[in-house]
């Protein structure tokens, strides 16, 4: 009776790699690791330079391994974006819970949480808002105005709008303006354009709050209530 040896030294390289990868990354661990490595690569060189072969090399797996989870680079970037959206939404909700029912504090919390997320997770942030020029087809639910955190932002602004604390054509229009401000500031920080890229935590915190207060002061309207937004907790 002929018996085939299963000793690793007798197996073809591709089969050995598959066995080693299965032993090292199981139950979805490889998928998670590939996303981690992708984030590292994006932080270093940007999403445009990302390749599945390069990710496989960084992860220490065969060049074919990523294709078991992601058919192409676009699928990997979408996975990174989905993870980022979930993380941002979780952070905003956590801070809103601490802000209790004060509508102005909740409005401020949303803006501050957005900026803080971008600073803490720059690679996620960049992929979440990847430029269409990169040729990535963004799923409808990941387009900025379709994401849960944007709808949450509109909900908080709507409460302020109903109370007359914010003036504007509509809560959606106000949200777009506020979003443009916090998004632009976030990019300036993570791209190192502010103060030559050197911005200490105290200065950054002051600028964040000043930015949102300036927006609030303009959006409340000439006849709006003279209310100073409270400093958000968290």
Features:
single chain, 234 residues, mainly alpha, Arc Repressor Mutant, subunit A, Tetracycline Repressor, domain 2, 2 domains, 9 helices, 61% helix, disordered N terminus, Homeodomain-like_sf, transcription cis-regulatory region binding, Tet_transcr_reg_TetR-rel_C_sf
- CATH-defined superfamily of the largest domain: Tetracycline Repressor, domain 2
| Portion in strands | under 5%
- Helical fraction equals 55-70%
What does the largest sheet look like? none
Give the integer mean of the pLDDT values. 79
CATH topology of the largest domain: Tetracycline Repressor, domain 2
By CATH reckoning, the class of the largest domain would read Mainly Alpha
Strand-and-helix sequence, N→C?
Answer: HHHHHHHHH
Q: What is the total number of structural domains?
A: 2
Oligomeric state of the chains?
single chain
Number of strands: 0
Second rung of CATH, namely the architecture of the largest domain? Orthogonal Bundle
Based on helices, strands and strand pairing, what is the structural class?
mainly alpha
What features would you describe in this structure?
Residues 51-70 bind DNA. Keywords: DNA-binding, Transcription, Transcription regulation. It holds the Pfam family TetR_N. Residues 28-88 form the HTH tetR-type domain. GO terms for molecular function: DNA-binding transcription factor activity; transcription cis-regulatory region binding. This protein has 234 residues and is mainly α. It has 2 domains: 12-71, Arc Repressor Mutant, subunit A, CATH 1.10.10; 80-229, Orthogonal Bundle (Tetracycline Repressor, domain 2). The chain contains 9 helices and no strands. The protein has helices at residues 13-24, 29-45, 52-59, 73-99, 103-120, 122-128, 148-162, 171-190, 201-219. Helix 2 (29-45) packs across helix 3 (52-59), helix 4 (73-99) packs antiparallel against helix 5 and helix 8 packs antiparallel against helix 9 (201-219). The longest helix has 27 residues, at 73-99. The chain is elongated and about 60 Å long. The termini are far apart.
């Amino acid at each position: 009776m002929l018996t085939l040896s299963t000793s690793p030294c007798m197996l073809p390289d591709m089969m050995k790699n598959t066995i080693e990868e299965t032993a090292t990354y199981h139950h979805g661990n490889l998928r998670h690791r590939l996303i981690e490595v992708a984030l590292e690569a994006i932080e270093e060189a940007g999403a445009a330079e990302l390749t599945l072969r390069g990710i496989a090399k960084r992860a220490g797996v065969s060049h074919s391994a990523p294709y078991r989870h992601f058919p192409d680079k676009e699928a990997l970037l979408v996975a990174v974006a989905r993870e980022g959206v979930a993380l941002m939404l979780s952070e905003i909700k956590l801070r809103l819970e601490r802000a209790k029912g004060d509508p102005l504090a909740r409005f401020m919390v949303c803006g501050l949480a957005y900026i803080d997320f971008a600073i803490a997770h720059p690679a996620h942030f960049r992929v979440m808002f990847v430029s269409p020029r990169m040729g990535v087809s963004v799923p409808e639910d990941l387009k900025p105005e379709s994401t849960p955190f944007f709808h949450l932002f509109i909900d908080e602004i709507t409460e302020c709008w109903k109370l007359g604390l914010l003036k504007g054509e509509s809560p959606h229009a106000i949200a777009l303006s506020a979003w443009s401000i916090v998004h632009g500031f976030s990019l300036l920080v993570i791209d190192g354009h502010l103060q030559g890229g050197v911005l200490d935590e105290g200065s950054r915190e002051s600028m964040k709050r000043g930015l949102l207060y300036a927006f609030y002061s303009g959006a409340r309207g000439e006849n709006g209530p003279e209310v100073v937004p409270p400093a958000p907790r968290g």
